[in-house]
Amino acid sequence: MTNDLMVPEDLTYKVDYVPAKIDFLYFDEMKSNVLGYTDRFKNIVVSPETVDDAKKVKANLNKLKKQVDERRKEIHRGYEAPYKDFEVKVKEITSIIDAAIVPIDGAVKELDAIEQSKRESLLITYITDLAPNYGLNIDDYEIKPSWSNKSMWTKSNKPNAQLMREIGQMGLDINTHRERIASDKSAVEAYATANGLDASGWVAQIDQGATFAQLRGRIDDELMRRKKEADAAKKRAEAQAAIDAMHQQQTAQGTVDIDTGELTAPVAPQPAPQVEQQTIQQATAQPTDSHVYRQAFWVEGTKEQLWWLANQMNANGIKYQGIKKGEY
């Protein structure tokens, strides 16, 4: 069978081939004549008076160029004709050979596919038996397509040394990865919890490929973001309180909005504080007549002193009203 498949010597074909020879006769003389002719027009000046002559010169030069190139094309066609005839005959022979190759090639590929499938089954069996030694199962492995290649197996369909090393190393790598995952999850949970964060979302990112080192930085960024938000919220509240104070008046009944007259924060009377060098002394009103007077004045003192003064006026039935800022 092997000898029948070998190509016999008598099938080697012979070709009577003589390399073509193309000589450009009197090339140097032709080149010199063309140079002499074209040199006459190198410095031609084109003007309205000479434009017609210039066009004639251009036409003559194009005619000369075409004449020279047409001769080249004619030679090329004659030179190429015998090669094309030869090419047709060669393709006729190779098509016959291809007709014999196609069914053989199909059969070889079909057999290769059968052998490949067999090696794939043997590979699954091998890993299934080996995996428990690493505390794993077949589903834990990412089987590489190259593991079932013919080059990874012996002639007796046993995994070779390289294949066994690669499968064993993958088992070790899987366990190392799982240990790292468990360690990182524990560290992330502890760090997030210690900083007052819900750890579940951070821990879930470990399964998505993040490491503790990466997540620690992200957690720090989140803590900083929250701190900045809290600081900003505090400043906004302080600013709003200052703005509100500009439109409020404190009375015995509570805080009154100057613009609307609305009582926004009722309060209970407060006892008078102990104030040294009190400038306003407590006195009980002793009306001598029933006539009511109105007097505008302003007072100056601490917040506690002003509250005390308000309480005294309330206790003595004295009506009062705050003066808007800008009116005093």
UniProtKB/TrEMBL annotation:
InterPro entries named in the record: Prophage_Lj928_Orf309
**From what superkingdom does this record's organism come?**
Bacteria
Name listed for the protein in its UniProt record? DUF1351 domain-containing protein
Q: Which organism is it from?
A: Lacticaseibacillus baoqingensis
